[in-house]
Amino acid sequence: MIPPPYSEFPEIASEDILLRKIRPEDVPVLVSISYYDGKKATNEAEAAMMLKNIEQDYISGNSIHWGIEEKSTGKIAGTCGYYRGFKNDSGELGCILLEKYRGKGFMSRAMRLAIAVGFKKGLKKIFAVTSNGNNSAIKLLERLNFRRTGEEDHEIHYAISREELFSIRAFRNDEKEEILKLLRLNTPKSFHPSEEKDLREYLENEAENYFVVNGPGGIVAAGGFNTGFDKGRAARISWDLVHPEFQGLGIGKKLTLYRIEQIKKLPGIEKIVVRTTGQAEKFYENMGFQKRHFEKDFWAPGFDLYQMEMRIKKRTA
Fold it and tell me: Which intervals hold domain N-acetyltransferase (predicted)?
C-alpha cells in the first residue's frame, strides 16, 4: 500500500457527498460523534484535541480521516476513515453520522467511496467492526459485500478483500434503470447525452449477451457483446460502463477478459470488434485490440469512432 501522508489530501466526491479534510469550523458540529482511543469527547476542546491526534496519525501514516459533506448544503454529516494503521496492506474502516443524517443513505455512500479509495491506494483487505446488536450496521456491511469473519466480546468482525470486491453475472431486464444511471454518471466525460436513447433501445431490444458487475452496494459496471456480424465470423463488444467511483480498480479489464473468454467458446467466431471513442482507445489497445477504422464526430460532436479488432486464437483439443 502507498501509506499516508500524501502530497494532496485525498478528497473524493460522489453525486451528493464529498469526503474531505475536516476543518476547524467543523469541530463544534462534530462534538457528539468525536472519539479517540475509545473515548468520547464531552466538549469542543476535547473534540479539537482528538482531531489533532487523528491528524498526527495521518502524518505518521496510520490514519485517513474524512468529514462527510452533503454537497447540496455544504454541511458536514459525519466522519469516515481508516484507523489503527495499515499493517499487511490492510485497513480498518469506520464511519459515524450525526443523528439527523442517519437512515438516509449517507453512510452507505461514504463507505463506498472510502472502500474504493482504499483499494486504489493499494489495500488488499479492509476490516470493519460493529456490535452484535447494531442490526442496521450489520445489514449495511453485508450490502457492501463484507463477509463475517468472527465474533468477540459482543463485537462482530467483517472483512472484504480486493479479490472479493466484484462478481460478474448476467444482466436482468429489471436493471435497465441502474445501467442507464451508470451511463449518466459517465456523461459527458465519456458519452454524449444523446446516447442515452441508444442505450435504452439496446437494453430493451438488442441486449444479447449483457453482463453486470456487482460491487459494494450494487451494480458498479456493465458490458456485453453481440454476435452475427461479418457473416457470423465476428462478435462485437457493446456498451462498456464503469461507475466513476470504481474506475481505476481493474473492473473494465476484468469484464473485458471475461467476455473475451465467453466469445472464444462460440463456434465460428474469428475476431472481436469494438466500436469506441478516443477516450477508451488506449484501454482497448492495451487489451490487445488494433485500430482498423476512424471516423470523426461519428457518435456526436467531439466523440469520434475508433473501430478496433482482435483476432481470436482458437483452443486446440
Answer: 17-167, 166-313
Contacts of residue 26, Cβ cutoff 8 Å, sequence gap at least 6:
67, 76
| Domains along the chain with CATH numbers | 12-164 (3.40.630.30), 167-311 (3.40.630.30)
pLDDT for 66-116, tens place per residue?
Answer: 999 999 999 999 999 999 999 999 999 999 999 999 999 999 999 999 999
183, 176 Cβ separation under 8 angstroms: no
The per-residue pLDDT for range 18-45, each reduced to its tens digit, is: 999 999 999 999 999 999 998 999 999 9
What distance in Å separates the CA atoms of residue 139 and residue 142, rounded to the nearest whole number? 5
DSSP 17-63: EEEE---GGGHHHHGGG-EETTEEP-SHHHHHHHHHHHHHHHHTTS-
Helical packing angle, 195-205 and 176-185, nearest 10° = 150
Could you give the CA distance from residue 283 to residue 78 in angstroms, rounded to a whole number?
37
What is d(CA 54, CA 36) in angstroms, rounded to the nearest whole number?
8
Sequence-separated (6 or more) residues with CB below 8 Å from residue 158? 127, 128, 129, 130, 141, 142, 146, 147, 148, 149
Is 22 within 8 Å of 58 (Cβ atoms)? Answer: no
Q: Helices 135-143 & 106-120, crossing angle to 10 degrees?
A: 50
